[in-house]
Amino acid sequence: MVNYVLAAAARHQATAMLAELETHTPGAAQRLARSAFTELQTWPELTVDLVPETQTGSRCSVAGAYDFGPPALISVADAASPARRDFTALHELGHHFQKHSLDLMEAFESQSDGGLQLEDAACDAFAAEILLPTPLVDHHLDATGPTADTVADLWRAGAASRMAVCVRAVQRLPAPGHILLLDGSGRIAFAASHGLRPLRRGSFQGDIPVIDRARSSGRGRAQGRTQVRYRDGILGRELHAQTAPMGGYLVAVLVTDSAPWRRFTPPTKDTGPQAGDYLCAHCDEEYRSFDPACSACRVPHCPECGRCSCTPRVNEHLCPGCFIKHPPAMFADGSDRCLDCS
Amino acid sequence: MNPAQSSAYERLVAAAAGLKVPDAVREVATAPPRDPEPSQIWRAVWDDTIQLLVITAVADDTVQAVPVSFERYADTDTLLLPAGASTLEQPLALWWGLQLSLPWYVLDRQISQLTLPLPASTGLTRPHEVPPGATWGSTTPHPTAAAAEYRAVLADGLAELSGAQWVPHGSGVLPELLQRRGITIKQLASQLNLQPPHALAVWRGQAPLAPEQAENLAAVLGLGTDEVLAANPALPAPVIHELGRPSRRPQVRALATRTATSEPDARRRAAFGIYALAARQEGTTTDWSARADRYFELHLR
Ligand SMILES: [Zn+2]
Ligand SMILES: [Zn+2]
Ligand SMILES: [Zn+2]
Ligand SMILES: [Zn+2]
């Protein structure tokens, strides 16, 4: 269960850690963002080891570790993706800072567990902030919101995974919509939604109008209006859509109105399913409802948990691999890594 | 070292290094140590005590074991096994009457394996049925006094092993004591002259206070030194178990060599190190085994 107070305290702690980092080694944040592992290996006060993932035991359940020593030791399991490996290295660096600064430790004193959870959550927040710093996000995604190109630019500029970039971007959509990451076959590799019924991973969208044009043009660029496809071929409401290529994938930004790439976009008509199948954003119950939809999120209340899409999701869980909060369905039993990362 | 015990061990070494080294002996004695199982013959070592044992039963952190010797002395409570009863290919004497419970962490290396099923037995009761070819000893081959003396030596050694201790016994209330008196991590660091990471570990109850540190802190807390020492952290049971596994012993020994400390000190150091290790882990339950692996990887690199 995500503790929102803890998450806020962790972000606050991460800000203080970044300040400490800048004092400690000016300019290191940028180098860490490019390659955390390589940069940390040059730090004389730290011994950083890359441990082959197979060597960490058959369980392989420990992705990284920090021992304050002396000497201070960091070990990082060599993950398939460099992004994941660097995230782990940065997380462990977060422990190093927090365990060596009496000022940073003050935040632990008000915690009932001595700050164990806060320390760890702050390590994640610290790593996330280095990989996708707020100023970098601000620089690429301006006040009008993300376009397909600016999302792709943000990915190229940062060190974070495509998924992490999509999640950051969807937070800045000016209207209900989706940011989709589509693979070469036109299936959803990852979808981040805001205010609309979420789309399923793996669902085929390759033949819906704008996506189809983007794929057949060979350049990956198209814009226009389209409906996305839900389960059983049910089409959602019409959305303004724009696509761009993103490192072998296609990124698509879809919104109901205020499309950032247009001077003026009137709201599209809600032609989506008025009665039909829904996937609860909270408990992942699939349900059919003819009830009047919530006026804000346009999703009727879930018969299982009674909530619509507006209610904050309390049971989503931060994946330490991609630092994205995912619904429970994205985690296999007993794993704290999401299906995309495991 | 006790001459009677060392000679038994030396005879074993001689047997293993002799003209015909049973392949099975070489195999188990050179394999990485595994968790104990009944019917295995182990060498147990603690301080200066060395003893060969047959394991009769295994529990979570302890084994039931009887001392084993090469049939030279015996008494009426000694089960004599023929040479074919174990991979040692030597006649063995199992001192059944001396069966005792021992902690896993005294087990050092598996030497051999019985090839005959052991008689079922509970506690010290002498089993009615014995394996084929086995007999109960008598006092005839040697004078009673010599056998009794040998028996006493084995009993002492076993008592030594049975009482071996390394686990610190703290109540774990130190963090509470510190917080009740409003002692911050900063104050703790300056009072005890500790580096920040160490001060944090003590404040969180992840690192123990040494007696001098407890004395220093006792004055500040208005308590007795003994009271403060008694509040030292308690180690989680799975950590204690993990460090008692025979597979950890070579790692603990290597750590003792590196840190120039005794084996129990090195074990305590590793235990608190594993306890306080910040490890990124999958799943919701703590995998102490993986953490121990990682700790030793870090410290024996
Ligand atoms: Zn951590
Ligand atoms: Zn709603
Ligand atoms: Zn629900
Ligand atoms: Zn993930």
Report on the architecture of this protein.
The complex is a heterodimer of chains A (342) and B (301). Chain A is of the alpha+beta class and 342 residues long. Chain A has nine helices and twelve strands. Chain A has helices at residues 4-24, 28-40, 82-100, 102-105, 116-131, 134-140, 148-157, 162-170, 209-217; strands at 46-52, 62-67, 72-78, 177-182, 188-194, 222-229, 235-246, 249-255, 276-279, 286-289, 317-318, 325-326. In chain A, the strands form four sheets. A five-stranded antiparallel beta sheet of chain A has the order 5-4-8-7-6. In chain A, strand 2 (62-67) and strand 3 form a beta hairpin. The two termini of chain A are 20 Å apart. Chain B is an alpha+beta fold and 301 residues long. Helices cover 43% and strands 17% of the residues of chain B. Chain B has twelve helices and nine strands. Chain B has helices spanning 3-17, 23-30, 144-162, 174-180, 185-192, 196-204, 211-221, 225-230, 237-244, 249-259, 263-276, 288-299; strands at 40-46, 49-58, 62-70, 78-81, 92-95, 100-103, 107-113, 135-136, 278-281. In chain B, strands 1, 2, 3, 4, 5, 6, 7 and 8 form an eight-stranded antiparallel beta sheet that branches. In chain B, a hairpin with a 2-residue loop joins strand 1 and strand 2. In chain B, helix 5 crosses helix 6 and helix 11 (263-276) packs across helix 12. Classes of the chains: A alpha+beta (342), B alpha+beta (301). At the A-B interface, strand 1, strand 2, helix 3 and helix 5 of A face helix 5, helix 6, strand 9 and helix 12 of B.
